[in-house]
Design a protein that fits this description.
The protein is mainly beta and 88 residues long. Helices cover 0% and strands 31% of the residues. It is elongated and about 70 Å long.
Length: 88
């Protein structure tokens, strides 16, 4: 198992991100902590939009239209994922 450096003290620091998400609802942003650099084992963060990837769309048929049964996706494909690494 690869382990990064182990710190014996906690250090608090600030930084300015080059890109970020604006959202009035914090639940719409997903942040995942993990180890994303296999060579040094330090922690990192991934931030991405927290949209429902798939939802079932169903429309019943009538005399003038066909029924619809499909899965739709709220992602457009132009969303950015923000990766912050080397937090250790």
């Amino acid at each position: 198992m690869v382990r990064g450096p182990v710190s014996t003290t906690f250090e608090k620091d600030t930084t300015q991100l080059m890109e970020w998400y604006n959202s009035s609802d914090p639940n719409m942003i997903k942040v995942i902590k993990g180890k994303f650099d296999y060579f040094n084992g330090q922690d990192g963060l991934i931030a991405l939009p927290n949209k429902n990837p798939y939802w079932k769309h169903y429309r019943h048929s009538t005399m003038f239209r066909h029924s619809q049964n499909r899965f739709d996706n709220y992602y457009k494909g132009d969303e950015k994922d923000i990766l912050v690494h080397h937090l250790g």
